[in-house]
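Exercise: predict the structure of this protein bound to guanosine-5'-diphosphate.
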Amino acid sequence: MTYDLNRKRVWVAGHRGMVGSAVVRRLAGEGCEVITAGRDVVDLMRQAEVEAFLADAKPDAIVMAAAKVGGILANDTRPAEFLYDNLMIEANIVASAHANDVEKFLFLGSSCIYPKFADQPITEDSLLTGSLEPTNEWYAIAKIAGIKLAQAYRKQYGRDYISAMPTNLYGPGDNFDLTSSHVMPAIIRKAHEAKVSGASSITVWGTGTPRREFLHADDCADALVFLLKNYSDHEHVNVGSGEDVTILELTQIVCDVVGFTGEIVHDLSKPDGTPRKLMSADKLRSMGWKPRVALEEGITETYQWFLDNQVKASAA
Ligand code: GDP
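Solution:
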């Protein structure tokens, strides 16, 4: 272990999001004090507010789960927001973390930082070896800048600032809005609504042939806490399940879980995005971490969360 969380004050930035809330749950057993702050307390886009918040809250460690996130269409159509907002949030937090002597900082990126045609499974050293996937290059550039910020503060000031690159995440608390969500919650919602309305088909975007790797948010949170405690180095670390499925295979699993038996139709006017982005899980595995939640089990749990929280809420 390189960093003991016991009795530390840990700020989880972005605690209302799917990953942030999973990290808060996971930290409960670590003997640390978890600090959270809503947008009413600190606007992460404003440097002065972030500085004042950190000078007051004085955390020992930060998990940076705050980001502007969204699926392929949101990324493709709102590039300014995805680039500017993420650059601002991460730059404000890293600089203020250093100014306030924060000991440990964990930055979260995404598998879209890698070149569109990187060799699969993608190892950490593929970063910046080729062109990015155009549908999400704005977000990717911001996330690459975040990795570099953590590295720069380590190099220039000796800070123990590290980065993790999670794959496509899903789970309780995900965004189920069809225009801005990622594929998993979108398909869950579409299959559910088609079942309830008795529709004969659901529509998935693109050809269904792209392959994606999925990891449950609780597994991701577990890996992040593992890295906080056990990792201190310059290079970022992939956080994934090590397995991928096609979008069509994913759709079929979701339909089975939801109980929708109709047809799957493709909307070819929507983008496929990158053909495949399976990350190598070797680095994290070799440190002794592995995921626990199997895909079908995780989808079943996520569907139940959707029923309990979204469907019930919209019926109320
Ligand atoms: P990406 O991993 O950055 O490409 O983000 P997404 O999770 O949004 O999309 C993954 C893949 O799922 C892409 O090939 C999409 O075209 C495909 N897909 C199929 N149906 C949907 C849908 O209803 N919503 C989204 N977001 N993606 C979909």
